[in-house]
Known about the structure:
Elements (H helix, E strand, L loop, with lengths): L12 H7 L1 H17 L5 H14 L3 H14 L5 H19 L6 H9 L4 H24 L6 H13 L3 H15 L1
Amino acid sequence: MPYLKQNRHMDNFLEALLRDHQRYLPIVEFLDAIIKDASELTWGECEQIGLELGKQNRSEFCAGIRSGMIEALGADQEEDRAEKLRPILAFARKLNEDSSSITEADIQPVRDAGWSDQTVEDVAGLVAILKVYSILANSLGFKALPEAAFAEIGTATVQMNGYTPVFRTFVKSKRREH
């Protein structure tokens, strides 16, 4: 159950974001910008990184939404691509755990796997924005939704080509309700 009085009637974290949509739209746009402008990572790979971080942050909502996205994207990894992603995942987990402990030695395995420095920057941005989402969802008391709800959100997000268009659609439909 949500912890804050203004959210007690809400079923999920998305409703909390919509309640103050002007405040939260920039983080939705930032997530889209990172994912869509990632130099070498696919949208599915960004979501796989997000799933790892959602689990690491013990954010049921964030892990659930990433699972729904992976399913909607059909983001099964080819074995060679999955192997190439391993150092990225290790870097992302360490960055998520303690960004102040990152050294160039943590970046080198990413480079050695054939990724560019721009991809390292993309991962840093992705970790940062997903950490914001995890902190918000956890601290406001939002837990997971049923898998079917996450699958529906994932499908809509893929069909609309991003989080921002879906968010704006939810804002418009919320306005019509009132």
